[in-house]
Amino acid sequence: MFNRSLKSAAGVLVACIGTAASAHIVPFYIQMDGDQVVPPTPSLATGVGLLMYNEHALEFELDLTITGIALEDLVGGGPNNTPCQILFGKFGENGDYAIDPTYWADFEQVGDKLHLYMDRITLGGFQGAFGSDVGACDEALWNEELYIIVRTAAFPDGEIRGQILGNCRADVNDDGFVDTLDVISFLALFNDQHPDADFDGNGFINTLDFIDFLNSFNLGC
Ligand SMILES: [Ca+2]
Ligand SMILES: [Ca+2]
Question: Which of 12, 23, 116, 123 to pair with 69, CA 20 to 30 A apart?
């Protein structure tokens, strides 16, 4: 659970990675895969994203890169018949529509990856055929109860999904860097069967969590 006491740590992280940001811009991290879809899909596609949230303007910048899905694989769905939505829900739960990123911008094919970018988009509110409460979206973001999906012809309800999280998952020791110290920290948690070692959030601590951690580590977050 991300809370406001962690924001100073997030600020240190932003400073460390050299992102131009003032104290009120808070980073949130996205890692998408088929396992997070409810129910899970066997997709091998992945996505990694960064959502920079301006907590005063209630606006966000989203930078999302998808591997393993091509532009022609995408299909529309949801209220605006678009391929990507952010919804309310915890890990393992499906919920209502919160934000429609692809109402504001389109995926672009960049090499063998898909890229989606937008800036200064309000976190909720009126969006085409639906609207959401900005305050509810803000609260859900801080509580890590928003997730993002991408729809394809093979999986029109969502081929991959990613919870939008307030910390960089692979930075297990919360020092602002992803390095071998995090591997050591993860292994310690894993050996202790600590709840934080349940990386995929399914209530069990096993080798799948280790694989999930390594995936995050290799992605750099
Ligand atoms: Ca670290
Ligand atoms: Ca697990």
Answer: 123
pLDDT tens digits in sequence order for the chain, 221 residues long:
444 444 444 444 444 444 444 558 999 999 999 999 999 999 999 999 999 999 999 999 999 999 999 999 999 999 999 999 999 999 999 999 999 999 999 999 999 999 999 999 999 999 999 999 999 999 999 999 999 999 999 999 999 999 999 878 899 998 888 999 999 999 999 999 999 999 888 899 999 999 989 988 887 77
Please name the CATH architecture into which domain 4-165 falls: Sandwich (2.60)
Question: Whole-structure pTM over 0.90, yes or no?
Answer: no
Q: Helix, strand or coil for residue 152?
A: strand
Q: How far is CA 10 from CA 53, 66, 172, 174, 202, in A?
A: 12, 24, 13, 9, 26
Ligand in closest contact with the CA of 194: 2
177 Cα–ligand 2 center, Å? 23
- Ligand 2: distance of its center to the CA of 165 in Å? 17
CA of 217 to the centre of ligand 1 (A): 10
Q: Where in the chain is the domain with CATH 2.60.40?
A: 4-165
Cα(142) to centroid(ligand 1), Å = 21
Residues 6+ away with beta carbon under 8 Å from 206: none
Nearest bound ligand to the CA of residue 177:
1
